Structure formats: structure tokens, C-alpha cells
User: Which sequence fits this backbone?
């Protein structure tokens, strides 16, 4: 680990000096290498899949699995990052004092970005691409379930860099998947300039509580959809079905449904008919009197299921919906379905999450969907970055002051 961190720290000075064209060329070479190394990546992933079967859920297996199409998508994602504007070197603000001293605030690379993530091999290439385009080196620490896949992907990315004579140490993968290696990254002061955890609540909380390097809280998504009494009910059903079932294993999937009591007797049977065969509905006391389902347990409104499970609660009005979200949300994404402008104003003003939707699915909280390119993660905190973290959020800034012999 110490050798890797030293190599990463040394590499950042080379990567910081790359021009936009050099970075774009490097990204395209990395994308080419992913396709060239496809057979090795798929073979490694097959080993991961075989080891994981029977130990993780089907939806988690889906997150782990790679196919030729998914590898092609990863390569395309890297190429799309190459097409994005360079976030480095922008004059963010400038002013000139009365005495002629010029002060500029300029965007610059972070330096070395550490990413701790779990069983999603595509994060490996996404993170490496975004870090490089932002002028930074990455140190990746994946989960043990996906280690073989991640290692094969990193070997390909490093080969792409090497083909252009760019240091392979721009992309690094920690070979140890024990907790000790994660702790080492969290406390690598002087080496890691920014740490980003991507995964479940346990990982994120461990990083936030133990990190002595700057850390972004990301990912955990107890996302709500609130169906207000004036809602177009067919629209609401479409949104709920998409938010819950299109990909339940991701952080922007819906976990909790709130329904106005005024329409519960009419709406909940429609909900049960639409998704009840596919989704386990965990119901509060009122909902249990209307449709069949599982009684909601004490923790069901505070759980990121990442599965075909939906907690359902009936509320009096928009104020109770906002209060429930304030008490149980992780600050990720919440949606209201309504035709009432007053309810829209109350919800969008009152809900304090990184993404607040009106008549749309929470599944849009994603860097690609927001036009940022593939994202590094979804920040649920308020300092430095909030919501999908694209290229701009992976830079910092410094002041450049120009004088003509000025003295104070």
C-alpha cells in the first residue's frame, strides 16, 4: 500500500501537466484497451460470478455481472468523458483591485483521488476516466466479490496508458480487499487528497467516521415517492413502477412510497395490481386494511432494500409527507406526483435532499442523465459537492495573483 501511494503521489505531477488533447488521447486509448482485453475481463468476471453465486442476492449478481455489451458500454462511457469539456484551468472568478493587483480563482486538479467501492466492476473504469479527465490520479479499492474483474479492467486501462507513454500509475488498484486496506486509505494523510466511498450505508458511515483525509459522503439512497391527492394516478403508477423496478439495486431506486389518505382506498388497489406480483409491499396499518401485503416493520422506513421491496405509508397531506421524509430520508432523491402548484411549492421548498423531483422518477439522479458524463458518485452532503459528482466536482481551485511589484 505504501509503495502504491508513493507511486500515485509521484504520478500526479505528470498527470497534472497533461494537456486536454493528451488526456483525451489517453482516455480513448483506455477505451480501446478495454475492448482489446475483453476476453480476459470476461474470464475474470466469470470467476467472480461463480464465487458469488449463493452468497449474494440476484439483484447484486446483476450488478456484478459483465457481458460484451456492458464492456462496450464501459468503453463508450470513457469516450464520452473524452468528449466533455476539460474542467481544469477555468477562471472561475477574477477581480482587479484599485491598485492594479489582479486576483483570479482558477480550477485545478484534486491530485490523488481515492475511491472505495463495492461489487460494481463498471465503477472501476468510470472512476478512472473521470479522475484522469479531471487531471488527477486515482487509487481504487474495490470489494472482494468483484476483485478479479476490477483487476482485469485496471490491467487493460494501464495498458492503454502505457501505449501512449503515460505513466500507468495514473490508475491504481489496491490488491488487498481486507478492512485494513480501506482503513489505510481513510487515513492516508499526505497521499490522498479526496476520498470517495461508493457503496452501502456501512461503508459510507465507516469512511465518514474514520477518515482523516477529506471525504465525501455518497450513495445511500432511501428515496421516496409521494403521491399527493390531486395526482394523475396513471402517471403515479408509471413513475413508481420505474423508480422501484427498473433497477432496484441502485441508489436512486425508490424504497418508500407515501400516499395521501384521501386517495389511498382508490389508489392502493391499482398499485397492488400494477406491481404487487413483482414487489413485496410492506404496509403501514391503514394500507393493510386496503390491500394485501406484509405488515411494515419498525425498520422498514429506514432501510435501503436494494431489492424488490417497497415500504408503503399513508399520510394526511404534503406537510406530513415532508416531515416523514425529513425523519427518514438519507438526503438522496425524493419525488412528488401532483397537479397542485401549492403542493409542489411546499414539497420542493420543504424537502432537503440533493435531488427533488416533480412528476418524474427518482431514477434520473445520475451523472449521465444530468449531462455530466459518467459520475463518480452521488453526494448526499452539502459541502464541496452535492448530487451527482461529475468532472467539475472532482476539481478544486486556487488563487493566482498577478502584480507589478506590488508590496503591502
Assistant:
Amino acid at each position: 500500500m505504501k509503495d502504491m501511494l508513493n507511486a500515485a503521489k509521484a504520478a500526479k505531477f505528470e498527470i497534472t501537466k497533461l494537456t486536454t488533447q493528451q488526456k483525451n488521447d489517453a482516455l480513448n486509448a483506455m477505451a480501446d484497451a478495454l475492448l482489446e482485453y475483453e476476453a480476459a475481463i470476461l474470464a475474470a468476471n466469470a470467476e467472480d460470478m461463480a464465487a458469488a453465486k449463493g452468497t449474494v442476492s440476484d439483484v447484486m449478481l446483476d450488478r456484478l455481472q459483465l457481458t460484451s455489451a456492458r464492456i462496450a458500454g464501459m468503453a463508450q462511457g470513457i469516450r464520452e468523458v473524452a468528449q466533455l469539456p476539460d474542467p481544469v484551468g477555468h477562471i472561475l472568478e477574477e477581480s482587479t483591485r484599485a491598485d492594479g493587483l489582479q486576483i483570479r480563482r482558477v480550477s485545478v486538479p484534486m491530485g490523488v483521488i481515492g475511491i472505495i467501492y463495492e461489487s460494481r466492476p463498471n465503477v472501476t473504469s468510470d472512476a478512472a476516466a473521470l479522475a484522469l479527465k479531471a487531471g488527477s490520479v486515482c487509487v481504487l479499492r474495490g470489494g472482494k466479490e468483484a476483485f478479479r474483474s476490477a483487476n482485469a479492467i485496471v490491467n487493460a486501462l494501464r495498458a492503454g496508458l502505457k501505449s501512449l507513454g503515460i505513466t500507468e500509475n495514473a490508475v491504481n488498484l489496491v490488491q488487498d480487499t481486507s478492512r485494513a486496506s480501506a482503513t489505510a486509505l481513510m487515513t492516508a494523510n499526505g497521499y490522498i487528497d479526496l476520498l470517495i466511498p461508493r457503496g452501502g450505508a456501512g461503508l459510507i458511515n465507516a469512511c465518514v467516521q474514520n477518515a482523516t483525509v477529506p471525504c465525501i459522503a455518497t450513495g445511500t439512497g432511501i428515496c421516496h415517492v409521494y403521491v399527493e391527492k390531486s395526482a394523475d394516478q396513471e402517471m403515479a403508477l408509471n413513475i413508481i413502477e420505474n423508480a422501484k423496478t427498473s433497477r432496484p439495486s441502485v441508489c436512486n431506486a425508490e424504497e418508500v412510497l407515501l400516499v395521501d389518505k384521501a386517495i389511498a382506498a382508490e389508489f392502493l388497489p391499482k398499485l397492488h395490481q400494477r406491481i404487487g406480483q413483482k414487489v413485496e409491499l410492506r404496509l403501514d396499518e391503514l394500507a393493510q386494511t386496503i390491500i394485501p401485503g406484509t405488515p411494515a416493520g419498525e425498520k422498514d422506513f429506514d432501510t435501503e432494500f436494494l431489492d424488490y421491496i417497497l415500504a408503503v405509508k399513508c399520510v394526511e397531506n404534503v406537510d406530513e409527507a415532508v416531515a416523514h421524509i425529513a425523519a427518514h430520508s438519507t438526503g438522496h432523491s425524493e419525488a412528488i406526483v401532483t397537479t397542485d402548484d401549492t403542493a409542489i411549492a411546499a414539497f420542493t421548498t420543504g424537502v432537503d435532499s440533493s435531488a427533488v423531483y416533480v412528476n418524474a422518477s427518482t431514477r434520473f439522479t445520475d451523472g449521465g442523465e444530468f449531462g455530466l458524463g459518467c459520475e463518480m458518485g452521488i453526494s448526499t452532503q452539502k459541502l464541496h459537492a452535492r448530487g451527482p459528482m461529475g468532472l467539475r466536482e472532482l476539481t478544486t481551485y486556487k488563487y493566482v495573483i498577478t502584480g507589478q511589484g506590488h508590496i503591502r
In short: The longest strand covers residues 102-109.
